[in-house]
Amino acid sequence: MQLMVPAESAHDTIAGLGEVGLLQFKDLASDKSAFQRTYASQVKRCDEMSRKLRFFTEQVSKTGMTTSLRLGSETAFEFDQLEARLDELESELMQVNANSERLQKSHSELLELQLVLERAGSFFTDAQSRASTSTLRSGGNDGISTMDAPLLNAEAPPSEPKTVRLGFVAGVIQQDKLMPFERLLFRATRGNMFLKNVPVGAVVDPGTAEKVEKAVFVVFFAGERARTKILKICEAFGANRYPFPEEGTRQRQMNAEVTARLRELQTTIEAGERHRESVLQSIAANLEGWTREVKRETAVYHTLNKLSMDVTRKVLVAEAWVPTNAKARVQEALQSAAQRSSASVETIFQPLVTYEQPPTYFQTNKYTVCFQEIVDSYGIARYREANPAVFTIVTFPFLFAVMFGDFGHGMFMLLFAGYLVLAENKLGKMQLNEIIDMMFAGRYCILLMSFFSIYTGLLYNEAFSIPMTIFGKSRWACPTDPKNQDRAAFHFNNDLCPEAFSEGLQMTTTHPYPLGIDPAWHGTRTELTYLNSVKMKLSIILGVAQMNLGIILSLTNQRFFRDSLSTLCEFIPQMIFLNALFGYLSLLIIAKWVNGSTADLYHIMIYMFLSPGNVDCSGGCPENVMYTGQGPIQVLLLLVALIAVPCMLLPKPLILRKRFLKRQAETNDYNRVSPRDDGDEENDNQALRMGGSSHDHHEEEFDFGEVMVHQMIHTIEFVLGAVSNTASYLRLWALSLAHSQLSAVFYDRVIMAGTSANSIGALFIGYSASLGEFQNKFYHGDGYKFAPFSFAAVDKEEL
After folding, report:
1. How do beta strands 167-174 and 240-242 pair?
2. Which residues of 154-183 are buried (b: 16+ CB within 10 A; e: fewer)?
3. What parts of the sequence cross the membrane (predicted)?
């Protein structure tokens, strides 16, 4: 659709369409850079507002405040008013933060100074007390010879004592830097220094505002050169130096002044914190609403930049994809936007003829979105192509259950899925981790998988690898005592039925077990052989059936697009090739189950290719003859399958070339050749407008070589895929066997403590490949997803 929007109402119109959320706009200004577009300045303003909001969010989150929309909060701001309000709040908050940081730094410095005055002062007090004690002791021994007196004291001539003035530097340093600090001081001063230190515990560092372990130090030295070196080393180690008076009276006076200043600073800091908290509370009350408005404004201006401006700069032209059933809602939104903006001219909304392939749009809900996402992971469906998600809703959980069939494990899955479903309202509002969120998104898929796992567990007759007898006792009994049907008792007591280990058990009735596998098979020496045979053949039947479903869906696509040529040259040969070989194998499997034949199906299929018509191995295996005329019929099926290969390869490119040459002769121009039988140009254009079978956005010349190569690749892929995909479906049997054996090991070793949850990931991977084998029969997957401009999606994005 094409929209011609008056420039005066462009903003309100795009905002109204964002509320509808059903238009995907095309970028009509892709040749311009981001700075050359019409609304580049508005986008820049929105980016600046987003930066401020991220700053506010960071500040609010640090305080632990909530940002939910509150009653009475400011939500009705115009764009310019909101920009001015955010600018004002940012300036105020940054000023408050700067003042708070400055006050905190001053508080930390004063606190360290107080520690220096207290701890370093104790150094001098202790030294003075020791000096006084030493003086008193020496003064009391005048005229008396003691052991401590110098030997030459009496003979030494009286001389004037030489005094040296010592300097000192006091400060605080990190505890872990103290040892290298002392070592470097010793080397720099050649040992002419003395360091005293005492740890003070964790204090707030003025530079980093973080708590670190520190120690108070005092370095004594002699000489100005030593002082210069010590000061440089202190600076290199990040040590904070503080003034320290020598006199005790001055120390006590300075300590009292610091204490008073600390009390004043603490009062000022508390007042600043209250003011900062009030500012953040006012921001937090409106932050969510402001964030939503800014995100929407940013999205609106980004969308407006995709529109092209006419030469008069009064009208904006837009092109957008719109779902057909949403035209009425879009028209209403355009009318209401014109009324809100008081525009003199309404927006013109008209269809536009285009040859581009439209995007693919599937409406989903909480039940189907999981399955649609699984299908989309393999590629987006082409426009109006059959959607595999409809069938995946059933096939995905069922084939998973074929591999995960266990009644007990299925019940555990049901309990887990039931909790996710019942608590979806509460869990949907929580911030879940990645794994839990993925499980929550697929809760309905897990629920269906649990149902099917319980069903297949009943068919396999297993609960935690233990056989069940829900539907009655076994149909097998001791040959000599038909009433004795307890196989477990036979196993633990061989005397109850010795014939069970020599002749085997005997059926007590002609009717089989009511549902599933007879529990008598579990635990026997032939259990693995029997279950392997059943599950392997069942996997082949399910695989062939699903591949046939895929080919039939390709027929629905061809009928919808009226592509009768593909039906004749692709669908029919593909069905013949697949069913002449593997459909026939499936019929033989079912026939063998029905009539109890002992034929070896491996030999039948091998000799069908290596020796056509030789069914009984030249008399060596007569049991392989399952019906009259089997040899000629197998030869016929083989010939039909071989003939189907060139039918898939050659006719379609040749017919397309013939059509192209015919049209070229009629029009003397190169036109696109339609793969349908009808040559009506109007129908061709209509098909192209609806997405048709065209991949391209413009008409192109017909290249026979390219078409031939494409058809050859498609044919080889199908022929080889028919064989490999059938063999690939055997993973259903392989993973079912692995799950069963793991369950048995867990039961034997852990006594029902494990649920073999580790195998679930492998089962998901196993079926995921089977999903691709089903889809490649009909699913091109070369479309692109419908991504409308929607405020609902914008609100979920990060700022």
Report:
1. antiparallel
2. eeeeeeeeeeeeeebbbbbbbeebbeebbe
3. 398-421, 441-460, 538-555, 576-594, 633-655
Calpha distance 271→533 (Å, rounded)? 82
Specify whether the CB–CB gap between 392 and 794 falls below 8 A. no
> How big is the chain by its Cα radius of gyration, in Å?
44
Q: CA 698 → CA 102, 701, 755, distances in Å? A: 66, 10, 56
User: Which residue reads 């399955």 in tokens?
Assistant: 371
Taking phi over 0 as left and psi of -120 to 50 as alpha, with beta for the rest, 120 belongs to: alpha
- Give the integer Cα–Cα distance in Å for 713 and 257: 91
Structure tokens at 776: 């490649």
Q: What residue spans of 483-571 are helical by DSSP H?
A: 487-492, 527-560, 564-566
Cα–Cα nearest to 732, from 531, 527, 438:
531
Q: Which helix (H) or strand (E) holds 319?
A: strand 315-321
Helices (H), 700-776: 704-728, 731-750, 760-775
What is the CB neighbour count within 10 angstroms for residue 201?
A: 11
Q: pLDDT tens digit string along 109-151?
A: 999 898 888 888 777 776 666 656 655 555 544 444 444 445 4
Average pLDDT over residues 24-49: 90
Residue 235 identity (one-letter amino acid): E
Q: And the tokens for 310?
A: 């006419």
| Residues 361 and 691 sit within 8 Å (Cβ to Cβ) | no
Query: Phi/psi at 551 (nearest 5 deg)?
Result: -65, -40
Read off the pLDDT of residues 693-741 as tens digits, 9 standing for 90 and up: 444 444 456 788 889 998 999 899 888 888 888 888 888 877 877 777 7
Torsion angles phi and psi, residue 501, rounded to 5: -100, -5
Give me 56's structure tokens. Answer: 């506010």
673 CB neighbour count, 10 Å cutoff: 20
Cβ–Cβ < 8 Å for 223, 168: no
Helix (H/G/I), strand (E/B), else coil: 697? coil
Residues 229, 216: Cα–Cα separation, whole Å: 19
Tell me the three state secondary structure of residue 666: helix
CA-wise closest residue to 778 among 711, 718, 732, 723:
718
Beta carbons of 277 and 63 less than 8 angstroms apart: yes
CA distance 407 to 334: 56
> What's the predicted TM-score (pTM) here?
0.70
Alpha-helical (H) ranges within 561-600 are 564-566, 572-578, 584-595
User: What Å distances lie between residue 44 and 9, 37, 52, 90, 794, CA to CA?
Assistant: 21, 12, 13, 17, 18
The sign of the torsion formed by the CA atoms of 114, 116, 117, 122 equals positive
Q: Which residue has the tokens 């029902």?
A: 752
Task: Give SS3 for 760.
Answer: helix
pLDDT tens profile 404-426: 888 888 899 999 999 999 998 88
Instruction: Pull the structure tokens for residue 142.
Output: 């005048």
Which tokens is 716 given?
């080889």
Contact call for residues 6 and 343 (beta carbons, < 8 A): yes
The angle formed by the CA atoms of residues 163, 182 and 224, to the nearest 5 degrees, is 40
d(CA 767, CA 759): 13
First and final C-alpha spacing in the chain: 31
The DSSP element (H or E) to which 350 belongs, if any, is: strand 348-350
Distance CA(474)–CA(494), nearest Å, equals: 19
3-state secondary structure of 159: coil
